[in-house]
Structure formats: structure tokens, C-alpha cells
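re the bet — no i am not wrong, look at it urself. input seq straight from the record:
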Amino acid sequence: MSLAWKLDNAWHVLLGLWRLRKCTQVGRLPRVYGRPSVINLGEMIIGDKFRFLSTTVKSELVTHPGGRLEIGSGVFLNYGASISAHKLVQIGDGSQLGSYACLMDNDYHSIEDRDKPSDSQPIILGKNVWLGVRVIVLKGVTIGDNSVIGAGSVVTKNIPPNSLAAGVPAKVIRTFEVKKP
């Protein structure tokens, strides 16, 4: 590793600590590229070696009063990602979210009475979950460990572990076994 690479990496870790200063807890060696919007009115817990891009398009992390956002270790969020937690959004270790991924545990209003707030239901992403570009995950969804969600999908129901799912609404296309080293 060159000295330039080490200095660049150290700079992005310092930026990460600064940009994530509003979080409740931040693990070791976060790297942030660009200027994300971080609004923490609840609890925001981020694990070690978090990588967060907000370069081409601003990314945003939001917790509302009483909301909790838990991001595991080794998680990568690409630019344009939008995550909002009124109750709970949990992202497991090693997960990767593509550009413009959107996770919101609340609809912000009821269908019948648009002045009435909607109920919140948790979103849980297991370990090593990959979301493609422009994936939307709706409230109340759990995506199992090692699953992959294809680009442009809207996830409205739970996806089991070790699954490839895609479509609107997302459906399991196939399952697979994860090879262990």
C-alpha cells in the first residue's frame, strides 16, 4: 500500500467520524465519501468499517423520535441511498445497498385519512444481504441472510435466507447454498 493510499484512507475515516457525529454510536474506521444528510432524532448505531457514499447524489440516514437505525459492521451504502426509521431498520453485517436503495419503515400517512400518521413496522436485513440499484424495501419486511435482491425491485413481503429475488413485487426466483471457505 502506498503512502498516498494510506493518507487518503485516513482522511476518509476522519471525514466519516465528522459526518457521522450526530449518530448515537459509531464503530471503528467508518469511511464517508461526500456529504450525506444524517438526522438523528432517535437512536443511530453504526458498526465497524462502515462505508458510505454520498457523492453523485446525496444519501440520507434519518431516525425519527423513538426510531432506531442499526447498521452492522462492514456495511456499504452507495450514493442516493435513503433510510428512514420511525420504529426499527436493522441492516446486518456485510450487507451492501446499491445506488438509490430506499428503506422506510413507515408510509408517513394512512391511505384513508392522509392527515393521520401511518403505523410503523420494522425492516430487518440479515447478514450479507445485497440490494441492487433502486431497490425499495417496504415496512414490515425481513430479508434473510445472504439474499440478493435484483435491481429495481420492490420488496413487499419477507424473503427467506439464501434467495435471489426480483420484480415488482419482488418474488423469489431461486434459492442457493452459500459456499463456506
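see?? Residues 3-19 form the longest helix (17 residues). told u. also The chain is about 10% helix and 35% strand. so pay up
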